[in-house]
Amino acid sequence: MYRVLIAEDQTLVLGALAALLRLEPDLDVVGTASNGKDALALCQQLTPDIVLTDVEMPQMTGLELAAQLSERGLPCKVMILTTFARSGYLRRALSAGVRGYLLKDAPADTLAAAIRQVAAGGRAIAPELALESWNAGHDPLSDRERQVLRLAGEGKTSSEIARMVHLSDGTVRNYLSEAISKLNAGNRIEAYRMAREAGWL
User: Fold this and answer.
1) Where 4-aspartylphosphate occurs, residue numbers (predicted)?
2) Angle, to 10 degrees, between the axis of helix 62-71 and the axis of helix 36-46?
């Protein structure tokens, strides 16, 4: 039996995924979480074989969850299941140690087969994403630039961002300015939109 934990912030999707996977004789859904922070706590408690997670979730994204699991040396393998067919997300996911990346419109039997493949030590990447990633441009943003740009795109001021990430106002403005420059954007909102569309946030 492969033990699976599902992290998904949309309640209906979470319930449907759990119900579908429980129909498989060799997959055991041992837990569910509606945000990345709760998923991390459950992973430490339950040590599942597979963590099936969305990219965008409250409190901690699926990519941040994958990075945290890797940093803490937890043995569970991470698979992304998302609506975002963006090569930037795939590249960041692979850098974070993610072993599978599928789109939510994949058939249920494809998902189950991918979970088995990843649990057995392989990879499972949606073919159309793998091809797009090969042809896509490089993500120019640093982790800090990505962090402050995401918060700026959510409407936070430089002062609010500084308090949230424990940096000075000037340092936050420098990171934003660098991100804007790297993306050849006119301002922080345009930079946020460009980076989001590329899948870099």
Assistant:
1) 54
2) 30
Q: d(Cα 65, Cα 78) in Å, to the nearest integer?
A: 9
Task: Please name the helix (run of DSSP H) or strand (run of DSSP E) that holds residue 51, with its range, or none.
Answer: strand 50-53
Instruction: Indicate if 16 and 96 belong to the same structural domain.
Output: yes
107: left (phi over 0), alpha (psi -120 to 50) or beta: beta
For residues 119 and 149, state if they share a domain.
no
pTM as predicted: 0.69
Residues 10 and 108 in one domain: yes
Tally the domains of the chain. 2
Please give the chain's pLDDT, 201 residues, in tens.
Answer: 999 999 999 999 999 999 999 999 999 999 999 999 999 999 999 999 999 999 988 888 998 999 999 999 998 999 999 887 776 778 788 888 899 999 988 888 899 999 999 999 999 988 777 555 545 557 788 989 999 999 999 999 999 999 999 999 999 999 999 999 888 888 999 999 888 877 787
Q: Taking the alpha carbons of 129, 133, 139, 142 in that order, is the dihedral positive or negative?
A: positive
